[in-house]
Amino acid sequence: MSSLSIGMTLFTIVLTLIVALMMIPVLVWLERRVAGIIQDRKGPNRTNVFGFRLGGVVQSFADVLKLVFKEEYYPNHIKNGKWIYILAPSITFISALLAFMIIPFADNLVIDKESYIIQALPIDYGVLWYLVIGGVGIIGIIFGGWLSHNKYSLLGATRASSQMLGYELPLGLSVVAMIMTYGAIDFNSMVEWQSGVILGFIPAWGIIVQPFAGVIFIIAIFAETNRAPFNTVEGDSEIVAGHMSEYSAMKFAIYFMAEYIAMNSASAVVITIFFGGYTLPYLSTNTMKDNFDILIIAIMVVAPIIIYLAIRWIEKNNRVKSSMIDDGSRAFETKVFKIILIAKFIIIEVLGIVLLTMIDNPNIINSVVMILQIIIFIVKLLIFNIFFIVVRWTLPRFRFDQVQTLGWKYLLPISILNIIVTAIIIVGVS
Prior knowledge:
Blueprint: H1 3-38, H2 57-69, H3 82-100, E1 109-111, E2 114-116, H4 126-146, H5 151-182, H6 187-194, E3 197-198, E4 202-203, H7 206-209, H8 211-224, H9 236-239, H10 249-274, H11 285-290, H12 292-317, H13 329-356, H14 362-392, H15 400-429
Antiparallel strand pairs: 1-2, 3-4
Helix pairs in contact: 1-2, 1-10, 1-14, 2-10, 3-4, 3-10, 4-5, 5-8, 5-15, 8-10, 8-15, 10-14, 12-13
């Protein structure tokens, strides 16, 4: 194995870990800010380090420090299987993280005719890996609820397992319909299929080709990640914190982080299967490479517009009301952000000019296209995570019987019917 191969392998692993783990404080911040917007209030915006609030993101890091240094408490009634009780949060966390490791962030990078896959776990059965590993996380929830020796915790774990069974089937069947459509179980092949068009102009995204499978998958993935309106596992008004009731400090935090990593993984899978993955409509990998000069010029034109709008947004929102005492920290923070954004604008323009002089170097073109596809994927990931959050703070939580009824009586028959119709169409077309 060459040094470049080792370097690319390490790059993909580090990239995946950064996106998975560093996204947690960002998602916590988004959860609070979006909830504040929907409920017509402000989210956390006071915690700062040397006057820098980063829009409230610093509050997320403060919460992490609080949980790290908080005392670990184990109730005296937990005796049998205590080591599994302690291990349970890690099972859920590792399962969610491993499910994220098979997501491709960009098309294969070709350097000197050698291809490198931009995927932490380079396996060609990614969708099956996600279904299997994603289902393992429920074991950590069941162990946590059962070995807590608490009736509320046990009830939450029981709800989690029954909810998983009720939605695992329609989830899997919707994936089967997509496998039949794409003729592949590899995520990269699915994205490549979606880079085409239908009827000459409609993007061939999975959500357009298979709308019923897409809706079923998205609903089922909400239930699988225990997100509202399917968060009956930890219904605060009924079973306190569910399977997490007897956990404190970092053990609680690990469960908490596992939920956000699972949400992130679910968003990544939905994007990859149904929303074109790391590609944009009419911009396949080959199209970006063939029109590299036009692409760079477009970025040089659009980037200053985005940076200008970002500066205006910061100036508008990063201010203290006239009725409040101002120590000048907000103005200083705004000034620093403006300098950083202007510096980014200059860097982008200079890089654009340099890249336009190197359009004859295929290695440079392939590398830049890879970076752009990673950015496209992360932006899509953030958008779908925001969708997760908006749904949570918009819809009321379903009753547990309603959750089960929806899964077994509606989604399961529709997903079976969808497979039958898909099979008929595929056979008829071929």
